[in-house]
Structures
1.
Amino acid sequence: MSQMRPVQVIAVSGGKGGVGKSNISVNLSIALAELRRRVVLLDADLGLANVDVLLGVRATHTLADVLAGTHSLSEVLVNGPGGMKIVPASSGVQRMAELSTAEHAGLINAFNELSDQVDILVIDTAAGISDTVVSFVRAANEVIIVVCDEPSSITDSYALIKLLNKEYGMFRFRVVANMTRTPQEGLNMFNKLNTVCEKFLDVSLQFVGQIPFDENVRKAVQKQKALLEFAPSSKASMAIRALAQAVDKWPVPNAPTGRLEFFVERLLQAANAR
């Protein structure tokens, strides 16, 4: 049995759709892979399976096949740009709460076998605050909340943070402002969210960066290419690389709980507790 290494598990969430969360998840994963990290992106955005669409990759197998015991996790992994890998989730994630004991054990083993091949697991959660989103966010080590300049973005992000704080005692959140027109705009968004959180919740929010509005993002989506591949020197690409540099310096839990099988344990506990 090889020495299990701790893995950084980062959930990217946003409280609502349309904030560019999947785009940030995909491109952040690529930027971290460029830093020579072994990155796996878990597409937990059910129903939309956004990641395949964004990258134009076709997944023949998904997490559902791993749960069924017909494929190993390594076999369902899809190669993405820059050397990162993708776990296509499909509806496999939806039934996390109803897993049999054997499936439960199988899933832990599946992630276990992966932990030698991954430094960072990025989870692209679905929009909103469904049970599945909450389960993934609770199981992660780090949570990135993506906000954009729409009134509902701040209120929905606040609702997600409030739920995680009040119901589950989570208190540390990182915030990224997306599609900003000026550097000041990103700070303003963060301050708005931070002010209301400080007033009503016991949480610590950290502003970790902003991604400027960039026409290339839309063009990349149309071409089914990742932004970092499509326009590597665009303003948004540069900002995502800067974000990756910051993320790469976050401490990785050194305790046994930092290992991937514990992530799955926490995920299943969270799913079953609801």
2.
Amino acid sequence: MTVEDERRLLRAELRAKRQALGAAERIAAATGVAASLEQLPEFLTDPRIAGYWAIDGELPLHSVVASLQRRGQRYYLPRLAGPRLLRFAPWHPGIAFEPNRYGIPEPASAEGDLVEPSALDVVLVPLLGFDRRGHRLGYGGGYYDTSFAFLRERTEVAQPVYVGVGYAAQELDALEASPWDVALDYVATENELIDCRAGAA
């Protein structure tokens, strides 16, 4: 079995585990993740924070959006911008959505409002699995790894700060990294903010 075959099976297993969570667990986890993220100074102060619109059992970020609005920070959501590439559109309640080709909601926005990945301060990244060294198991499309490839060679936390968001139950003992993977700086779960740089040392 190839590494990609193993990853495909692992994705299915982790997706099923995530989808089995009840509504009360999701709501509690969303509150816990917001508290974990508030341990990150950049999340509290920097102006451009990107997240995602939760689908398929992903950990919802509604508590995060509310806290950013109270502090006057701007929130961005991804839009497909080309082969395996993302750009980010500003969003706040009241801005309409339109589905992309995968059926994922994207903010309806003018081309001039879109922001390049390198212009963001903090990026909250969805995931299926992670380990404490910052290895992330995504969905296999490569959009985040391609869009943030400029972070791959960094030796310390850079801009944007790259933060995985997931349930504690999605943690794995170890994930084998592929050459194109972009390592996470942190992972925020409902229980803690994990410093992946410390785990990689």
3.
Amino acid sequence: MTTSSTINSAGLVFDNSYARELTGLYAPWQAAQVPQASMTKLNLALAAELGLDAAALGTELGVAIFSGNQVPAGATPLAQAYSGHQFGRFSPQLGDGRALLLGEVIDTLGQRRDIAFKGSGRTPFSRGGDGKATLGPMLREYLISEAMHALGIPTTRALAVVSTGEAILREGVLPGAVLTRVASSHIRVGTFQYVSAQDKDELIRQLADYVIARHDPALSSAENPYLSFLQAVSERQAALIAQWMLVGFIHGVMNTDNMTISGETIDYGPCAFMDSYDSDTVFSSIDRQGRYAYSNQPQIAQWNLARLAETLLTLIDPDPERAVLLATAVLDSFPQRYQAHWLAGMRNKLGWTGEQPADMELARDFLASMEGQGVDFTMAFRRLADLVENGDANGLRDLYDDASQLDTWLPRWRARLAVDALDAPQRAAGMRAVNPLYIPRNHLVEQALNSALQGNMLPFEKLLEVLQNPYQEQAELALYTEPASAAAAVGYRTFCGT
């Protein structure tokens, strides 16, 4: 890739490879001007990681840049084009309907990062929408994405939320906002689908070569770089979805335009974390058939990868039948890839240091013991760590409506522990290091957002602070470990915010 750099007073040094190398996959565009911008939240730690001048960004200059009112030197704002299967139905042209890629920077570790807006106004891809975003959903994305980062789960991140001074009509009149989002890239499965739908072999090769150079440069010298690329994306997604499942995260809208090639979680609209374990949990208000339920997420990831594979067939092999065979072999390996990541994570969560043939069955049986018993998913693993240390199962049993299945499971689990030579304090500490105590509990998120909309950011700031250290118990934060009441949890739904 060629390079060109321009510096401005906020420390932003842009090197916009997507704009240079993928003409035809975007529309140059400008953010809408907003009437009364003000900084609601600035991520100082992320700004430092990006090598930005946090002090300058905290002034009116930062407000002007992150509201879209001022284009910083070297930026090339553009709306990316992509397609997508939305709830299984193909839309040939979606694209950034309310987002803009401002440009790319090289962070302090030498990694290329996108800086993009969300809620910055209409684009050529808006499809009749106003292109705006409201404050609540943008703060929600900030909160959840930063929580995911603290959990060690690959994710896009939030750099800033700016209030725009606009009144946006949704279910009511709500305050407007623009989110600034950072990602390794915003290239999606849907980006490949958009190019494939145009039936231009050279353009799909150009896109694939660009993405390999950006995300998997070592693959450029592979025997079959495009097949190896499909394998790499599959591996990243297998690892990512396993991490979601291990913490009870439900994305809610796993359309192909919401699956990144980089393996980062993206688009925190109707997402949520489970309280009580239920493998069929759905929070999204628009997922009426449960397509993206908790337990379906691995299968949906594989389905999405099949759509990516379809776009790469002509690159994988000129013989269509051989291309299909090669791609199918990669796709067929996804369940095994996913299970390997999930089981490795479950072994850590359950306190096992080695590998035994029956581990998968025993891990699944622990989840089965929770099904339908009102068991808080997060606390169950923490109580299991307590049990390792103090030998008392009552704390764990108290989470269950009926602990009979658990009582059958516990002796098998104890026998499995005995296989590994590890003392109890070490084992318990290891379990607590991978089983979070603090997650974005749905009722706490809603309380924080409601307070923010009333002008009080303190609950948001406190919750964000707690979520930055999800594994280390602090006695004074017990409130943040408690699930919502049963009455409050029933029928809880999340929304896209569009």
4.
Amino acid sequence: TPMYFFLSNLSFLDICFTSTTIPKMLVNIQIQSKAITYAGCITQMFFYLLFSVLDNFLLTVMAYDRFVAICHPLYYRVIMNPWLCGLLVLASWILSALHSLLQSLTVLQLSFCSLPEIPHFFCELIQVVHLACSDTFLNDMMMYFASVLLVGVLLAGIVYSYGKIVSSIRAMSSAQGKYKAFSTCASHLSVVSLFYCTSLGVYLSSAVTHDTHSSATASVMYSVITPKLNPFIYILRNKDINGALRRFFTRKP
């Protein structure tokens, strides 16, 4: 039950994550205009930051859920009770909203000399900050601090959880038990790898090269393609979801 509770939140988050950029992108393609209002740009930036950081939190919470399920199976129902699951999701939403609000408010303090052209397909925080005419030292420090504190700490939590999981799997005597434990984590590990590899690839490539076209293409993979692949990854690896879909499509009216 905790796993499906976190999966439902992740699915809802993926819908919100893609909805912050794709509708505006499709409108721009349809009307042949790439303009966006200042208020619309700040709003898009706020929700994009909110859902991207929340994705990090949820993946870390799900890693902890897998850690408890494999390393402490007898205490799983006691530890991962509904109260704790709800508290973890609520704390993730609050921290993500505070981070997004703080970053957006600091951008509002910047001034722009003329109508800026963002070399991207949406209002990304780094791209907007670099186009400002005023001093961006505070914004840069906040972005670096948030990256180290949020992404670094959360990724370290995922690595630590899977380090304990691997050591527990290696200690199992039966091959069937090892396979069952590994299959429990395979879907989540695939989503984590896809999310962090694409996101780190975007920001590392933008730091190394200044090719805006390649950076925008990598961002499409990170913010559009990856959330759409998550449901397929979990469906392919989950017998319960496969069975539910099979019963849904084969039932008679």
